[in-house]
Structures are given as C-alpha cells and as structure tokens.
Amino acid sequence: MTPRAVVAGSSPRALTLALALADRGHEVSLIVDDLHDRARTADLLMRAGRPGAIALQVDVKAAQGAALVIETEGRVPVLSALAHPGALAVGIGTGLPPGPGRAVIAIAAPPPDLGVIEVLPGSDPRILDLARDLGAVPVTVPAFLAPRLVAVIEDAVEALILEGSTPWEVDAAAEAMGFAPGPCAAQDLRGLDLTHGRHRREGHALPVLDRMVAEGRLGRKGGVGWYRYPGGGGRVIDPLIEDLAREEARFAGIAPRPIPDTEIRHRLRAALVGAARASAADPATLALVAAAALGLPAAQSRWLDPAAPG
Q: Which CATH number belongs to the domain containing residue 241 in this structure?
C-alpha cells in the first residue's frame, strides 16, 4: 500500500518536503493556509511541470489516517491526533516535545535543498531513516544551530540595509566571503514571512522587513521580496526596495550612508562568530550546519573562528 504523508504549511520549505516525499513514492497531501495559498501553490506546481504531483488541501482533516505528518507552522498536536496510530509526527522548529512517535527537526538549507537536517535528542529514531531517504544528512544536536545562524545574519542584514546599504550590495559582499547564495537571496527563498514570524515571537520588530511583509513582499514564492522574480524566473534588482528602506530610515531618524564591503563583511562575520560562541557546538558539527544553512563551504568555516582574520 502506498504510504500516506501529510505536510502542513504554505512556505517554500513545506512545498519542498511535499515534493520530495512524492518523489519517493508517498501519496502526499499539502495542507495550506487558505484558498489563496492553494491557488498560488497550484500555479507554482504548474510552472514547475509538476501539476497533480501532490494533493492541495485547506482542511487539517486531510491528515486523517496518515502514516507521516510534517508540520512547519506549529499545528503538530492537531495533525498527530488525526494521524494513523503509530504514525510519525514531525515538527519543524517547534510544535511538540520529542519522544516515541514524535520528532523535532530543523532544516538547515534554504529551499529547494534539504542538505542537513538537525534532530533534537529523544526524537523517534525513524526520523533518521526518513532524512536519509530524502537525501539529507541527519545530525543530532542538543539545540538547533541553523536557525540561530540564519537569524543573526538576517538581523545583521536588516540593520545594514536600514543604515544605507542595499540587498545587492550585501549579497555581493557576502558571496565574496563564500555565502551561496547571499543572505538576501536566501531569505527570499525561505520566505520573509518566516522571519517576520520570528520577530513577533521574540517580541521585537525590524521596520524594513515588517513593512515588506505588510506590502506582500514575501520573497520568491510571492514574486517579490528583497528582489523581484519576474515570471517566476531569476532574481533582478528592485530599486523600489531601496526607496522603501530609505523612507523607513527617515522615520527612524537614521541618516543613510554608504557602507563599504569591508564593513559589511566584518559585521556579518562578527554576527556569526557571536552565534558560534554562544552555541558551544563542536567545530565539525558547526561547519557542517553552516555549510548547509549559509552556503559556506566547509573549508570556509574559518569565518566562524574568532581568531580568523577579517
């Protein structure tokens, strides 16, 4: 019998997981947030030449009897209650404590890659086999590394842009350091609404990003974020984002200034070094996760070493 799997969420990550499971023989339903998201996702599947690869649903009851449920937005308890007895319920980031039948993970790489999957201790061991089946490398960590590395970079980028840089200047400097892609392009792949949600959970706001999300600049999935993606294609510079950032800087009483590449590189590296110190992770694991989360080659993990030259 074909195993039934349900993925819940409207993010690019959720769609990546749903398609990866379908490619491995699962009968997959993707539960999105509303009819608008269902239409948008159907269009993305059509453009990718994958119409009908997965079923698109808006009702959590689609999880009824599933053998695997993966939740990207905190509804794992609801979904797991509907799943088949003995099902594996997987939460990404939050949503449930690890234990028998439950796994808590973080996916380091931006969509559409899976790369490295971090797994919290105590998670159902079936998650390790699932990760490998999806072509990812599972690594058990006491606390997630990738979300923290990504968060400090995203916040450093917001500050740089508010102070006078542009997304394309930040990305160019970052890519010269080894980031692949640059942090703004990577954030567009993940979805800017995910960062906005993190800010709300942490109780703070960043004006440029908050306004972008309010205006529907959600990243590549919406056709516009830090860059524009005309026709669903590659990124192109959007001068409107520079105007938006300058306006928010004026509201905040900040006088924009040119920021040299050397300062951009220094501030990004300082953010990473601080996160690396706080993690107390072993260097090999840190380098592995950083390579997936930021595109930094393992050989470039020297950027995480506080003693490395800038």
A: 1.10.1040.10
The token pair at 173 is: 């400097």
Structure tokens at 250: 């004026």
| Domain interval for residue 127 | 4-140
Same domain, 111 and 157: no
How many domains would you assign to the chain?
2
Measured CA to CA in angstroms, residue 124 lies from 27, 44, 86, 160 at distances of 22, 33, 11, 41
Closest CA to 18 of 161, 9, 284: 9
Q: Are residues 10 and 132 in the same domain?
A: yes
Question: CATH number, domain at 62?
Answer: 3.40.50.720
Phi and psi at residue 62, to the nearest 5°: -65, -15
For residues 288 and 32, what is the distance between their CA atoms, to the nearest angstrom?
Answer: 31
Residue 80 domain-assigned (yes or no)? yes
H or E element that contains 89: strand 88-92
Tell the burial category of 150 from Cβ atoms under 10 Å away from its Cβ (0-12, 13-18, 19+): buried
Residue 223 has what DSSP assignment?
T
Pair 55, 159 in one domain? no
From first to last of its 310 residues, the chain has per-residue pLDDT tens of 568 899 988 888 899 999 999 999 999 999 988 899 899 899 889 888 888 899 999 988 888 889 999 987 666 666 777 778 889 999 888 667 889 999 999 998 888 888 899 999 999 999 999 999 999 999 999 999 999 999 999 999 999 999 999 999 999 999 998 898 999 999 999 889 888 888 888 887 789 999 999 999 999 988 999 999 998 778 999 999 999 999 999 999 999 999 999 999 999 999 988 888 888 788 888 888 888 888 887 656 666 665 555 4
**Would you say residue 205 lies in a domain?**
yes
17 and 106, same domain (yes or no): yes
Q: Does residue 243 contact residue 232 with C-beta atoms inside 8 Å?
A: no
